[in-house]
Design goal:
The chain has 6 helices and no strands. The chain is mostly helical. The structure holds zinc ion.
Length: about 130
Amino acid sequence: MYENIKNDLSPKEKIDILFKLFKGENISELIDKLDNSAVVGMQYFLWETAAEFGIICRGKEFSRKEITRKMTPTSKYQQQQGCSERTYSCKGTYCIHTNPDCARKKIKEHVNIIAQAIHQYISIEQQNESF
Ligand SMILES: [Zn+2]
């Protein structure tokens, strides 16, 4: 389970995601086309991007919590899905291999929430500066 799983997206995949993101397109649909490790890679990449924009926008005030608090808590999500993984296991990174349907659905929700946050940071910055 923990052997070297390559989670990195290719530069092209990253650019595709950013392009869609800037155009305001729904990027969670991309998940259906990606294999399991790429789905995890996409999640990592979006977190990195959100943190970068969040820090530009909010500086030291930025906290991942402002994004995670909008997400369904894992225990509640598991109940809704009838997922029988232990709570700490029901994460995209792990669950995607044991219970892909549950994990993909969850990651879609997370991706949408992270994308909304990135949009918010971009629009705040666009108001502050003239590009
Ligand atoms: Zn699960």
